[in-house]
Amino acid sequence: MRQLYCSLFGHDFNETKQVTYHVKEYTCKHCKLEVTNNGNGGFTLLTPKYREINSVLERIHTRRLERRINNPRRVAFKTQENSTLEPSIEFEFPLV
Questions:
Q1: How remote is the C-alpha of 1 from its chain's centroid?
Q2: For residue 4, which phi and psi values (nearest 5 degrees)?
Q3: Which domain holds residue 44?
C-alpha cells in the first residue's frame, strides 16, 4: 500500500543525514526508500557502495572542519599585500 501511494503521488523525501554541506541522505516518509545526492545533483538509490562513500566523505569533512577550528589563523591560500588589479604592462593602441 505504501508503494502505491508513492507511485501515484510521488515520494515525500525528508532529510535524514547531512554528510557534507552539499551531500545529504534522504528517506521517503511513506515507503522508506533511501536515496542520496549524486555528482549531477540528482538522486541515487542508497546502496552499500554509496553508503560507504558517504561515510568516507563525512569523515573527511569533519576532519577539515576540526582543523579549521583548531587553526583559525591557517589560511587556504596566501594573498599578497598591496596587490592591485591593475595590469603591470601598459598597452598603447593607435587611434584610427
A1: 34
A2: -65, -45
A3: 2-69
Q: Is the pTM of this model over 0.85?
A: no
Give 9's contacts (C-beta < 8 A, 6+ positions apart): none
Q: How many domains does the chain have?
A: 1
Report the C-alpha gap between 52 and 46 in whole angstroms: 10
β-sheet bridge partners, residue 24: 18
Please check whether residue 8 lies inside any domain of the structure: yes
pLDDT tens, position by position, 54-73: 999 999 999 999 988 887 66
Residues with Cβ within 8 Å of 57's Cβ and at least 6 positions away in sequence, in order, are 19, 20, 23
Residue whose grid cell is 508503494: 3
What is the distance between the alpha carbons of residues 17 and 21, in angstroms, rounded to a whole number? 11
Residue 94 is given by DSSP the state: P
| Cβ 8 vs Cβ 25: under 8 Å | no
